[in-house]
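On clarity, I found the account of how folds are encoded harder to follow than it need be. Since the whole study asks how a given chain folds, the encoding of that fold should be made plain. For the editor and my fellow referees, an illustration may be useful. An entry of this sort, consisting of the sequence and the corresponding backbone structure tokens, reads as follows:

:::
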Amino acid sequence: MTPDERFEQLDDAALVRLAVRDERAFEVLVTRHAPRVHRLAANTVGPGAADDVVQEVWIAVHRSLKTFRGEAQFSTWLHRVTLNACYGALQARRNLPFDAVAEPASPHSPVRSSEQADMRERLAAALATLPREQREAVTLRELAGLDYAEIAEVTGAELGTVKSRINRGRAALRAWLTQAGTKP
């Protein structure tokens, strides 16, 4: 078994401890978590800016590994670092979040692409109307796929508060989309 294969079998906590001194362990963490980080960034800042945000996230994570205390799971901490980088990028360009949602790849159909683009625009507009806390909770649940407990850890909110924010956010999105003539 190669050293790289041994690293791949380790859990995140062990990899974090090793990654402080060993770049191969850090590379395994990046490989393991990069798709979720990129998806969250793309759905928050748009696919055009996501690569820059993801790069900033991994630079920040690499710099901060020495001070990561492990009180939260690595993935929870990573989502918070990603959201902070996204908000920084949005603030820097003074733009509303969710201006674009990643478009699925092929098969390409001009009609379907147009419909998807229209739906993305409506969804982006609807998400932009939500208060930041609701938008963040809904995004972490629906786009990043986190469970309620993980969202509570990432946001620092109580579990009941997270559930309430998601429920209110979904209701507001449903109402906005219905009023805009879209069947949610």
About this structure: Residues 23-45 form the longest helix (23 residues). The chain has two domains: 1-102, 109-184. The chain is about 75% helix and 0% strand.
